[in-house]
Amino acid sequence: MFIQLKELATKGSIRLEGQEDLTDNLPKTGSLLGYGPLQVRLEARDVEGAAEVDGELEIDVEQSCSRCLAPVAQHVTVPFHETFVKGEEKAIDEESDEDEEDDDVLYVTGDRIELKPYLAEAVMLSLPFIPLCKEDCKGLCPVCGTDRNERECGCKQEKVDPRLAGLADFFKNE
């Protein structure tokens, strides 16, 4: 998905809708097990020579539960907002009173902006950091690895404060 800056400048705004395949842009390993096509609904506007892109992205993803490793299917809606400016990034003067909004501007070279890397970044940043299959997931037993959502394993899990662990040896002789 591309934005032609010259076309945007002449039209004033462009709607971008459709599906994007992010297979080459999303990681193939890690907690992201699978994903569907990305649904894109964006509008690009020419604002004083900058391309302001706003809209919404939707994607179905499958991640591993962070407690029991079961697959978790989710539908993720991602708000998208980026501002692109043609040219090179300016050197920051300590004395200049630049707004902090300039930090949110992405500088591009050429007359064409490829949106795929920015779309993939927005999707990755919006994924749950700790996905759960259910809110009360019990996870895996740290001793034997049994899924405690399916059955209790009966392993002894004695929690000892590491600061007091030395005292356990003191009382063994008595």
Automatic annotation (TrEMBL):
Lineage: superkingdom: Bacteria
UniProt cross-references to InterPro entries, sorted A to Z: YceD
Record's protein name: DUF177 domain-containing protein
Organism: Paenibacillus validus
Lineage: Bacteria, Bacillati, Bacillota, Bacilli, Bacillales
